[in-house]
Amino acid sequence: MVTGLVRILGTFSIFSFFSVNLIGTPFAVNWGQMFAIAAAILISLLNYIGVKKAGEFQLVFTVLKVAIILGIVAVCFSGMGNAPGGDGATSRVRSRARRAESPDSWRRWWPRCGPTTDGMI
């Protein structure tokens, strides 16, 4: 990526010094190669900082989400979620369950069902 950047920038007259050798011995290194190395280091540092900040951001919000879930669970199991004045919804559910268990409770809901005088259901 950075070598392509150096090649494109090298075509402009202001960056014509990219082809001039910086070091001649033991191997040739030109300004364009040094610019590419510096650009790669800069991009790597920016990526490192971004990943580190994103990781911190994600950690903070994950801890907050877990705390909210634990708070909801604590409220549910502590009994603070009941309506004031007695058992709340629990007593209504229990009384309905008791009525539903009575032997003739089905007649309330389906009065025309059941045995008839002619023996047919």
Overview of the molecule:
The structure is a single chain. This protein is mainly alpha-helical and 121 residues long. The protein has one domain (2-103). Helices cover 62% and strands 4% of the residues. It has four helices and two strands, in the order αββααα. Strands 1-2 form a two-stranded antiparallel ribbon. Strand 1 and strand 2 form a beta hairpin. Helix 1 packs across helix 2.
How many alpha or pi helices?
4
| DSSP strand tally | 2
- Please give the share of residues in helix: 55-70%
User: What strand line-up does the widest sheet have?
Assistant: 1-2
Rg calculated over all Cα atoms: 39 Å
Fraction of residues in β-strands = under 5%
Number of domains: 1
Compressed to H and E, one letter per element, the order equals: HEEHHH
Q: What is the straight-line distance between the termini?
A: 84 Å
Structural category is mainly alpha
Specify the overall morphology. Answer: rod-shaped
Topology:
Layout lengths: L1 H9 L10 E3 L5 E2 H48 L10 H13 L3 H5 L12
Antiparallel strand pairs: 1-2
Summary of the model, kept short:
The chain has 121 residues and is mainly alpha-helical.
